[in-house]
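testing teh design pipeline on a random one, pls ignore if ur not involved
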């Protein structure tokens, strides 16, 4: 009996695209997979176990080796340096990180406040720009911060631009493009090289069209 491969899947918006991609790669995922509230789902005929985690936590499960592989946004990978291998750009959940704020806002502070879910990315970005800022960490609804005076600017994900637009904010600087990545635990990469190589190969074919 071969070792089971544990895959950490992010709940939320990446899940749908990732599940679709796995199906296109020929993995037989049961239909109830998409609606279930279960956090561990076994697919015995594929020798795969899926665990469902918050997108920001996927990398933690993989780093600790309780999941062999996982799917995580590049934003999460950039925010914290982790001991995992990033083996494939899945080219799904495309978006980008940007600086945004109210139009024509005057910068009066010596160190303007920047609200973000990504304090490390934001700090490095402004350090590279040679700009002194004060970072305020938030967990969501980042666009609210400049509207209510918590921060002058934000660093956040932009996809369609709808959230910025509907809140009267404008994009000021493009930081970097983001897509989801396949990440692998370094020990699993050695111990379970066969199923991992197969997964990478099958997913690569889907990406390549
Ligand atoms: N608007 C978006 N469009 C496309 N991809 C996005 C968007 N927002 C975030 N992403 C990508 O999807 C990943 C997961 O985002 P999602 O919003 O599902 O989770 P989260 O915000 O971390 O968690 P939650 O909203 O459940 O607290 C992000 O890490 C990023 O890579
Ligand atoms: O450009 P858009 O297509 O409008 O997408 C961008 C929005 O999507 C994400 O928020 P999310 O929906 O994850 O909400 P939250 O960060 O407030 O939890 C991101 O933080 C932006 O707010």
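output:
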């Amino acid at each position: 009996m071969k070792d089971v491969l544990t895959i950490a899947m992010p709940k939320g918006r990446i899940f749908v695209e990732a599940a679709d991609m796995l199906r296109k790669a020929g993995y037989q995922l049961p239909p109830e997979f998409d609606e279930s509230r279960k956090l561990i789902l076994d697919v015995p005929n594929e020798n795969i176990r899926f665990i469902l985690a918050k997108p920001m936590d996927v990398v933690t499960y993989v780093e600790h080796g309780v999941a062999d592989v996982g799917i995580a946004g590049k934003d999460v990978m950039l925010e914290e340096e982790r001991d995992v291998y990033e083996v494939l750009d899945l080219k799904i959940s495309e978006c980008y990180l940007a600086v945004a704020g109210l139009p024509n806002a005057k910068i009066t502070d010596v160190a303007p406040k920047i609200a973000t879910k990504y304090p490390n990315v934001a700090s490095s970005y402004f350090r590279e720009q040679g700009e002194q800022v004060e970072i305020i960490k938030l967990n969501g609804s980042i666009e609210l911060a400049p509207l209510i005076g918590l921060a002058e600017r934000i660093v956040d994900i932009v996809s369609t631009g709808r959230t910025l637009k509907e809140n009267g904010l404008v994009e000021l600087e493009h930081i970097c493009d983001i897509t989801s990545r396949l990440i692998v635990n370094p020990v699993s990469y050695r111990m379970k090289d066969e199923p991992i190589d197969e997964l990478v190969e099958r997913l690569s074919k889907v990406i390549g069209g």
